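Chapter summary example: a protein plus beta-D-glucopyranose.
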Amino acid sequence: MNRVIRFPKRYTMKIQFQYFFIFSFVFITSFSFAQTDVDAKVERLLSTMTLEEKVGQMTQLTLDKIIDTKNEPAIDKAKIHDILVEHHVGSILNVTSHAYTPKEWQTLITGIQDVATKETRLKIPVLYGIDAIHGVTYTLGSTLFPQNIAMAATRNPELAFKCGEVTAKEVRASGIRWNFAPVLDLARQPLWARFGETYGEDVYLDGIMGEGIIKGMQGSSVANPTSVAACMKHFIGYSFPFSGKDRTPSYIPEIMLREYFLPPFKKAVDAGAKTIMINSAEINGLPMHANKYLLTDVLRNELGFTGVVVSDWEDIIRLYTRHKIASTPKEAVRIAINAGIDMSMTPYDLNFCTYLVELVKEGQVSEARINEAVKRILKLKYELGLFDNPYPEPAAAKNFGLPEYRKLALEAAHEAITLAKNENKILPLSKGKKVLVTGPGANSITCLNGSWSYTWQGIRPEFFPKDARSILAAIKSKNGDANVSYAEGSGFDKEINIAKAVEAAKAVDYIVLCLGEEAYAETPGDIDELDLPIVQQNLATALYATGKPVILVFTEGRPRVFRNIEPGAKGVVLAYLPGIEGGTAIADVLFGDYNPDGKLPFTYPRFAGDIKFYDHKLSEALNEYWPWSVDTLAYNPQYAFGHGLSYTSFEYSNLRLNTKTLTSNEKLKVFVDVKNTGQKSGKITVELYTHDFYASITPSVRRLRKFKKIYLEAGKQQTVEFEISKDDLSFVGNDLKTITEAGDFEVIVENLKAGFTYK
Ligand code: BGC
C-alpha cells in the first residue's frame, strides 16, 4: 500500500530543511567514510608490498607484450606470467593494431584478470587503459562521435556530457575502465596534427566542453558499470609546438601558460578528473616529463590534483634517447619519478622496473615517493571497483551499440556542422535536382572520422560498421540514386581524373565538392604547409569553369588554407571530423533537413603566414602607417572564431546591464533580446565577450566569457541572460597571480556593446 504522510503546510518548509540537512549529513559522512575506508585498504595493502611489487604497479605495458602474435587476441601464457607474476606489472594498454569485438575484449580482459587475481601473490587486479577519443576507438561496432574540434563547434556542453556518458558505457562494456581522454590542449598552432582532437582555440570553451565530457564519463561514481576514469591530457603546452610538428619544442612564457593553457586543466581537476597524462614534448627547453615545478608544485600543490599522473608513450626513456637531458636510461627514470610521474607507459621496456628498484635502494628516489605514487594507483583501482570484481560486468556489457547512441552521434554531428558561406542562399539545395558529388572526401568514411577510429590512424575502412555512410551515400539516399552522379576527380594529395569530373558536371544542376584531409593521427599527420593541397584546388578551379554552382564541403582536422578557391564557391560547409553519422548530417544540412547552427571554434586563417587568434591584442590589428587607426586587414581571417550561418536570420537588440558598476562580491547581469527574424526555426549560440579597456598586462580585444545555445521558432524572440563576476574579468598579472583590476570594461554580444566599471 502506498502511504502518503501529509504535514500541515506551515511545517513543510521546516521539515524539508531538516530532511535536507539530515540527507546532506548522511551523504557527506558516508562519502568521507567510504573514502577513509578506501584509504585504509590502500594503506593495508601497501604495507604488505615489496619494493618490486610497488614498482610493478607503477609500470604500464602495451598489449603486444602479452599477446600470442600468431593467434591475436589470444594471450601468450608464458609472456603474461613473466609480466604479471614475475614483474608485478599493474597496468596494460592499447591494442596491437586494430579494434576487437566486444566479445574478444571481454575474453582478453578475463584472461588478464585471471592471472592477476589468481596467480600473483597479492592478487591485485590489472588496470587496463585505452584511447576512446571520440567515442570508442578500439571496439568494433562502437559509436564514433564527432572529434572534439567538431564538438566545440556545437557550443553544447550538454552534448559533450552525453557523448561522454555513452563513450564510458561502451568502453566499460568492453571490460575496460580507464579512458585516455579528453584532450584539453588548446588549439593555437593550426599545423599541429592533433588540432582536431582539441576543443579549439578558446580557453573558456575548451574548459567547459572538457568539464562536460569528464562528468559524463565519470558519472556519479566510477565504480558504476556505466562509468570510466577519465584522463585529461596532455599536461601541458603540447599543442603549441613552435615548428608545428608533433612532439617538438614549444616556448611558452609562464604568464601565457597560466593565462591560456592551464585553466582548462584547472577546470578538469575541479570536475574530478581521476587521472592526467603528460605532454611528450618540451617547454622552454625542459621536457614536461622532467618538469617538477609544473608536475608537482603547480599540478599538485596549486591545482590540488590528487589522482594518478601517467606518462605518455615511452616518454621517460625518451628523456635519454630523444631529449638528451639524461645521460643514461636510469637517470631518465630518476628524473621523471622525482618530478612527479606516478605511472610509466614504458610501454615495451621492463628495465624501468629494474632501474627504479635500484634507484630506491641507492637512495636516489625515496621510498616515500614510490609509496605516494602506488597509493594513488591502488586507490584508483579500488574506486573503479576492480578489487570487488575485476572482470567484464554483464551489467556493463549490455550497454554496447544501442541504437540511441547513433542518434546522439547524429545530433552531435548536426550541431557541429558550420555553414560558412551561402551566396544568394544557394543552400539548402532543392531535392530532386541533379547533383554531382565529387572530390576526395565524397566517397570516404575514414575522412569523416579522422584519427582513433578502429585503428590508430583511422585509415582502414574495413573495420567501420557496414552501415556507416559516406557523404555520397547519404546524398544518394536523400536525393535519389538517379539524381546523383559521382566522379572522384582528385585524391587528397594526388590527381586522379579531373577531366572526368568536369565532364560529369555538365549534366548536373549543382556540384558538391568534398575537400579536406584523409585521416591521420599524431606524427604521421605532420605537414609542411597549411595550404589545401594544390591538386584539390585545381579540381575546384576546373569545376568552377563549368559555370555550375559549386558547394565546398570540408572534412578536415585543421584549417587548410583555401583563399584562392573560396571566392568561386557559392556555398561552404565546414564539417570538421563529424564522426560516424557525419555523412548523413552533411546531407541533412545540404538539403535543408537540418538548419545549421555550428560555430567555428577557431580562427580559420586566410594565409598560412597570418596566424592570429580572435582574442589577439590591439597592437596586432593596428596599422603602423595610419596612426591610431585599426586596420581591418590586419585581422583578416578567412572566417572568424564564432562564425557560422543559419538558414534563418537572428537579430540581437536591447543589450542591457543591471548595473553600471560592478564591485568585488556582486554579479553583473547582462540581458539581450534575440529574435528569429527568418522563416525557419533554428538554434543559435549567443556568445558574450568582454573587453578590458586598460590593464597592466595588455588586454585582448575581446575574450569569450559565457555562451548559451537557444532554440527559436521563426518569428519568436527570447531574452537571454548572463551573469558576469569579477573572476570572469581576471587575467594573469606580471607577478603570475590572477587579478581583476579596477577600471572600465564593456560586454560585447554580436554587434552590441555596453559599458560598465569594475570598482
Ligand atoms: C598519445 C596519447 C595516447 C597514448 C596511448 C600516445 O602516442 O600521445 O595521446 O593516449 O599514445 O595510446
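Key point: Confidence is low (pLDDT under 50) at residues 1-17.
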